[in-house]
Amino acid sequence: MQEDLNFIKRVETFIVDTEDVFNLMELYALRIKSNPKNRDYYEAFSIQCGECLLSAKKLEITPIIASLEEIHKLFKIVMEKGIPLSTKEMDVILEEIQDLYNIVRWQFKNKDISSDFFSKNLPLIKNFVRRYSLARKEAQSELNKAGMLGEDPFDELGGFDSFVNGFLNELDDVFDDIIVKDKVKTNEKEEKLKLSEDEEKEVEKLFLSISGAYLKPVKDFISELKNGTVSKDWIDICLSSLKLIEDAGTKMSYDKVVNIINRFKRLMLLAKGRDAKYISHGIRAQLLKEYANLSLLLPEVFALSEKHATKGTRKDSIIVTSLLKMIPGVGPVTRNKLILAGMNTLDKFYMATPKDLMLVSGIRFEQAKAIVDKFQEYKKSLRVKTNMLNQREVSLVKLATELENLKSVHLKCKEATRKALYSFEYESLKNKLKLKRQKVMWEINIILAELDEIKMLEEFKRMIYDRRIDRLEEFLEIEFKKLGKERGN
Fold first, then answer.
1. Phi, psi for residue 343 in degrees, rounded to 5
2. Which is nearest to 396 in space by CA: 453, 447, 320, 336?
3. Which stretch of 240-244, 322-326, 327-331, 468-472 has the lowest confidence by average pLDDT?
4. Does residue 383 come out as left (phi exceeding 0), alpha (psi in the -120 to 50 range) or beta?
5. Distance CA 217, CA 222 (A)
6. Mean per-residue pLDDT for 438-445?
7. Which of 59, 101, 269, 409 is the most exposed, fewest CB within 10 Å of its CB?
8. For residues 49 and 75, is the Cβ–Cβ distance under 8 A?
């Protein structure tokens, strides 16, 4: 009996420690399904699977160890050999992850450790491992190091819609709402819809927002292309974005845009089909020419922004995005409107008035005022520094304070997760604490950007909060030792 109680206690600890891990595994499995050649997603999934396996072994949650070992082994093999997994294979992995999560929760709820877990998917996963173990390593890896993990995954897990989902829904709902009421059929054939001037403006505005959300990788690609030789690894990354913009353009009858995008895609496919590792000079020149045509046609969408002209604005971009996320009522649509309007540096926000933001982006006065107030508040919080040592020291002290806040709220999240296993009424508290935890993370993002620790922010996108805390503690220990030496202590 005591042995049973000990096991249930270990299961409880496992669930609390790995809830975020399972959520991230599911998130990255879905990402791989939609972007099967993005190596970053495989690496992020593998890291989370390793976290889960480590916790299961440490707490001796034996029913699920075999499955986790095979999944982890599979991802190590496909990454080593550069072979993308198919949609069907990822469906099996996704189902297995969900089954593993459900079985430990079932065992905890029913206090039953006598029944063994039978995995219907484990034989399939073992077969995947055998097959890919025997497969030849690709001469040129099909998996691309794309650098496209996107925003902090916990933003999405916390209920913040991604740009893609948000704008797809906006496209379908708003455009369909416009056309359904005026749709007419003649002789059982649909005539081409004629929109009023106001409706055309509404559709154009929507197209600008949608295109802006998907264009980032294409603009990054063009920026690299202008600077010189570019690897063909960019092609698959850009093609998926161009397809979404093309679909929106087709639906909205932007024929000129669609025609140029078609020519652009054909050039990229031509480059992809060639043996060379890099895009040739001839195709490079044609791609730049076609993109220039797009920029002339719709400069508000396709024109490269300041951040593509200089690499020095990455820090500003992180701080601006984090500050905007902190403002209630300012969601991804509003943030995208501001970015499209060229509001991408701190200086621009410092100088802006609510009226300015309303005019350039079309947002409401309440939103504009809240944004201006937030940026002025941030500006005032910046202490006047006399030298780089003081500047860095101030940021490090702020970071140490926020780290303590993060540790406190993260501990409360875990405790609420534990209590929610026994009573559903704690679910709401748990979700509120997770949102609070993410808000603290935004503060930390800003401070790390001030310290130019951009690489650490990228690392965080693959880490659960326990690992982020460990990394920050290690970083602060090293930095404060450096400060002590510089002071001669």
1. -85, 85
2. 447
3. 240-244
4. beta
5. 9
6. 95
7. 269
8. yes
What are the domain boundaries of the chain? 2-134, 161-304, 311-381, 388-487
Token digits of residue 333: 């649509």
241-274 confidence digits (pLDDT tens) = 788 778 777 776 677 788 888 898 899 888 888 8
Please spell the DSSP secondary structure of 352-380, one letter per residue: --HHHHHHHH---HHHHHHHHHHHHHHHH
Domain pair 2-134 / 311-381, same fold: no
| Placement of tokens 């059982």 in the chain | 188
Calculate Rg over the CA atoms of the chain.
25
CB atoms within 10 A of CB 156: 16
Per the structure block, which two tokens stand in for 319? 């701080």
Q: How far is Cα 344 from Cα 380, in angstroms, rounded to an integer?
A: 19
Task: Count CB neighbours of 442 within 10 A.
Answer: 19
Tokens of 344: 């991408």
Would you identify the CATH topology of the domain 311-381?
DNA polymerase; domain 1 (1.10.150)
User: 430's torsion region: left (phi>0), alpha (psi -120 to 50) or beta?
Assistant: alpha
How many C-beta neighbours within 10 Å does residue 360 have? 17
189 exposure class (CB count in 10 Å sphere: 0-12, 13-18, 19+): exposed
**In whole angstroms, what is the distance from residue 383 CA to residue 392 CA?**
11
Q: With bands split at pLDDT 50, 70 and 90, how would you rate the model's confidence at 113?
A: low
Q: How many CB atoms lie within 10 A of CB 387?
A: 8
401 DSSP β-pair partners: none
DSSP conformation class of 114: S
Cα(17)–Cα(15) distance, integer angstroms: 6
- The closest of 303, 307, 305 to 319, measured between CA atoms, is 307
Top-ranked range on mean pLDDT: pick from 334-343, 348-357, 389-398: 348-357
pLDDT tens for 406-430 read: 999 999 999 999 999 999 889 999 9
91 half-sphere exposure, CB direction, 13 A CA radius:
3
DSSP per position, 448-486: HHHTT-HHHHHHHTT--HHHHHHHHHHHHHHHHHHHHHH
Q: How many other CB atoms are there within 10 angstroms of residue 233's CB atom?
A: 18
Q: Which residue has the tokens 């109680």?
A: 5
Among 409, 335, 331, 407, smallest CA distance to 159 is for 331
Assigned CATH for 2-134: 1.20.120.160
User: Mean pLDDT in the chain?
Assistant: 81
Q: How far apart are CA 95 and CA 92, in angstroms?
A: 5
- The token duo for 283 is 């195709």
